[in-house]
Specification:
The structure is a homotetramer of 373-residue chains.
Chain A (H helix, E strand, L loop, with lengths): L4 E2 L4 E6 L5 E7 L9 H11 L16 E3 L3 E2 L8 E2 L4 E6 L9 H5 L7 H8 L15 H11 L7 E9 L2 E2 L20 H16 L6 E8 L13 H10 L4 E6 L10 H4 L3 E3 L5 E3 L7 E2 L2 E2 L4 E7 L9 E4 L5 E4 L13 H24 L12
Helix pairs in contact in A: 1-4, 1-8, 4-8, 6-8
């Protein structure tokens, strides 16, 4: 993880600005001979794509991905497969609406990265947020679509579990509902409520935050590279690195602070297949930075969009007090579109650690359930 | 951050097990000609050191650090200084109490890393937790003591702000109180209460979690390497990678999810010295993954120690159901000793990014407050 | 340096196959506010471009580079400048001549990477050498063009100093001659001879090797990161990693093995500007892995193209003995086009270490010529 | 490879100065459950150890290595094994002879790293060369001893093939002779000659260079990570990074420059076991940066020690012309002791790439000798 490259062995390097010619990434380290078609990537990009409901920005971007390298197909491969060489994924920008940027060119919008990019680099492509735009996350979703194919049997799913102060009712959790509403919400009742709630937020020119939960199932036990590339540490970096994220939890997260030791620790029993089973999952599938084999559960908080219609106090680039209003196309709740992004980042971390584990320990299980080992 | 190395340019590699000969680390990439005496490191180790009150484990470890390389002193250097070469810090283990490990040798303690280390590696030094022991964190504190000296004017301080369900009263926050109680608690009233509360927990054979807050002041604006080595992403990894941590927040953290956009974004004004000032700090000093120049505020949740006296259901290494009781010396609230560790990790991230920023942008400020730039 | 990424801080990740849609790279870590136009990159690509004389492959590739991200221009920047974000450089493949690959599809050409790619990955894009094609080196030349702009005052020049058994006469070395012949040869007399010599090689259907020398002037003293990122070690990797390179030397290289200690060590004197000068440069500008301030001199040997018209014994993919003839468009001496590639790799290493040095030591010189330091 | 860490997945970080308390390294990423005793490391250190004949420095260092972490032994492991955690190897310095350094403290010895370390860092531990001393290479040999155990069936052997201008006669090559003379020379006749030759060099107060060849057998085909972590590029960095090395070759190296294409490319035939065999090994076991399965052959040139008794012109730290004579204990031919070091570096690169390959491609062979793949 350095600069614009994510990952150790399964790694991707992203590029592009919101209003430049294109965005995309180079995925490196992917195992060879994995079947891969652009359509498999596109399905995930389509979930993140803006302009699909009145609750996300009205920018119209098809986000059509092209695989520019790293795959091959002939009559011996039986369809297009990865070759082990870098996979370049290109997404051309289409709707870089020509607009007047004179306002935000020189004024810093509170809560935006424009100020810090300018302080750091002394120059920035301010159009639409430039490199700091959430548009960059399309590259992550594309890379994540490849990552999903690396760990056999892996399933990574995300859901919005809170919008503003309103949490879902977990007793109504139904994964099938996630695709039935524009919020990726697993609780159909609360999803209905979110419609009117977010309409109100949107019409008032304001915005609101959210909490997203990502669950990974089918994760083999043993993934993680202690002590400083612990699986939970890497997930925390992956999720905190998503635009606008301000908090990350694994398992019971901050609630563990109020728990007693005997309530927090997940007890074990031998299951029907003679493998250990856990009687609960407060740990969120990770102990000591290594996966337990249970579902990995991570949550992250997304702050409200700072691009709002209400005027805010700020300064300009030349040292003057001023006010700013954001007029562009924006999301009243950016947390919604963070769901497929969170899934992608979790998938990338797991694929990376799957390869890291295979490197150090090999493919055979190290599982110790045998006397004499 | 990979395996046992932390950091990009300012990096340390730690080694050692709880009951082995020694623990320590090699600090690499440290700038040359920084005055450095072992005593400066020892002062931080002493804060983390066990056995200082009845509220931490009774293991007696002096944690005396030796600088084995990377420093030099002659009449031209005016005292011992770093040379730019690797600094090896050695802490010998003293109190590896000889005890009977037959119980935990084969039984997995719920909530412990023993199970996952065994699943991953097929072997482990189980004595006292081996490599997964919190003892490893002494190496982090030692490295952090050096990191603190790299960023001019940097101050990194931590405090315990919640124990179990009991939060401190922030209106009583007094940094001077932190060293006046065994909890690193900045609220003297709550600190008093924690004494009796934790005595009760301890005597009941149970344990309890905590929340720690770390505040870094004097951080230059502009630190952070977007997009995948964002300052907040790196802090999240650093803190989530501390033993027993299950959640991390920057600034208002999870509370931002319930905020409206206009309440969350920190407004700006030009201050008396013609530099921008922020009117609030919901962002915790980071925007777009880059420091704003405000105080950086991070919080993390520490789960309750899973080593408790009460018997728990578990399995053994050979596939049998069984029960386990942890008899060793343990902390009723491991969160307490996490305070100096959290400080150290934050200091290491900031030192690392100070060097990373200097590499890419140079020493002169890129600050744009001048017409024509 | 891992997989398809080169460099630590100034780093580029290349992608693309010989006969795919495009090749290119993402340059990351570039300092901001460096003026950069595509034409500055194109001039170097044009030197490497095939089909410019009868002595290089007749493939017709314009190698037109597009800067797809990482630059910005408005009335405040005074022309296009880098922004500190990833610079994606795209070179579309134009002349992927449709041909019959049935022969090389299944037969391994001796001396080619086709065999090892197949053994490693079990699949490959064999068209034109795929990822192992020298075509990938265009990405290096493009990245190198940016690297050249990072170290102030840096000049990196290369020359062909030997073709087959024929060395140049160093007493006739004239940098101005390098661009006056199709061989990048600094000796005009030998360049004339090379014409007829290589014509003979070409017409005989054979090929021949070469030795290239790269000289970097204006390198500040102090660059290099001992012990395992020594400047010479990194140059060795950079040059040995160019296709078909089998040997690398710094300074007097293998000749130092036959020298006596007093002949090899470069003596020093204080020069007119009170700075030390060296009385010779056997070391090639590097001592202990750190630049001395003298010119850095590196040489590398390029093996003869293995793609030749004469039939060779080989095996096919299915375990049968067979023969193979390479019919495609090829270079009779690939070493020629290695000159701009060698320059690029040296420039990238120096830019990278310039940033690495600035990170650890800062911008001020650490030069100790002052009593009391 | 950065600063003082070598390797990607199998990596070691070395520390220590020539006349400090200790030297050593932390080996990270080693697979678990590999039997490992200190004695297995010691046998290689003993080969590199100084003071074993009149042809190496008379410094008396036992170079006794202690394994401080990362191994475990109980009745289930059947002897001491690696645990997958960091292995710290400690070698205490014993013979840091107290001497008068006033001469070299301020004067730069021509050909030494003292000048460049001072220019870079502004300070250095000059005693015995400090960090730039060949003493650091003991850490490499120790790490290499572990690396040798990672690749099943791997054999890495080195030999001195040239001293000064005198090459060995390859027709007399006998690996068994290497341990029968103080030069690691496989040609017993030439070894005899070297005795008198080097005695003459030593008595004249001069020094001489050498060429070392390292041969690795049992290397699986398919190792190497193109394009920028090619196996040959990594070997080049590993060997060029050894103190005093100025040139590196793979296979026929610089001789390939004078070869014709048909002479250089190694032809293939199907062998008796239905696996491909090569009819020659000009490539030195590597094509396209990936191992072919043949023996890997690398050579490197070691310059003559610059520490000689004859006075040399130089400057001092304060800007004055002066002369310097090196009086300490030194090697008349440092190339001799470079043999075990070269072996170690090659073993480390191969172990690293063995793990890297396993990560990306898995343990099963990707060998394509089957119709339909």
């Amino acid at each position: 993880m350095s600069f614009n490259t994510f990952g150790h062995l399964f790694r991707f390097t992203s590029f592009g600005e919101s209003h430049g010619a294109a965005i995309g990434c180079v995925v490196d380290g992917c195992p060879p001979r994995i079947p891969l078609e652009a359509a498999e990537i596109q399905v995930h990009l389509d979930k993140r794509r803006p302009g699909q409901s009145r609750f996300t920005t009205q920018r119209q971007e098809p986000d059509a991905v092209k695989i520019m390298s790293g795959v091959f197909s002939d009559d011996r491969t039986g369809g297009q497969v990865t070759t082990g060489t870098p996979i370049m994924l290109l997404i051309e920008n289409v709707d870089q609406r020509s607009k007047d940027y004179s306002d935000i060119r020189d004024k810093y919008r509170p809560g935006h990265a424009g100020y810090t990019y300018d302080v750091k680099y002394g120059v920035q492509d301010y159009r639409g947020g430039g490199r700091a735009s959430a548009r960059e996350t399309a590259a992550r979703v594309a890379a994540g679509a490849i990552a999903r194919k690396i760990v056999p049997g892996l399933s990574v799913r995300g859901a919005l579990v809170q919008m503003g102060p309103h949490k879902i009712d977990r007793s109504r959790w139904d994964w099938n509902e996630v695709d039935n509403n524009p919020f990726f919400c697993p609780d159909p009742v609360q999803a209905k409520f979110f419609e009117s709630y977010l309409d109100g937020v949107r019409k008032s020119g304001s915005s609101v935050g959210a909490v997203i939960e990502v669950v990974a199932e089918g994760v083999p036990a043993g993934l993680g590279a202690p002590v400083y590339a612990k699986l939970d540490a890497e997930l925390a970096a992956a999720l905190m690195g998503i635009n606008a994220v301000k908090g990350v939890e694994i398992g019971d997260g901050f609630d563990t602070a109020i728990m007693a030791g005997e309530d927090n620790a997940d007890e074990m029993r031998i299951g029907n297949d003679n493998k250990p089973v856990f009687l609960s999952n407060h740990a969120g599938g990770i102990l000591g930075g290594i996966s337990t084999g249970q579902a990995i559960v991570a949550r992250f908080a997304v702050k409200p969009t700072s691009s709002i219609l209400n005027p805010r106090k700020t300064v300009d680039r030349y040292g003057n007090d001023t006010e700013v209003v954001t007029k562009g196309r924006h999301d009243p709740c950016v947390g919604i579109r963070a769901v497929p992004i969170g899934e992608a980042m979790v998938a990338c971390v797991l694929a990376d650690h799957y390869l890291m584990h295979r490197a150090q320990v090999g493919e055979g299980t190290a599982w110790p359930f045998a006397p004499g080992r």
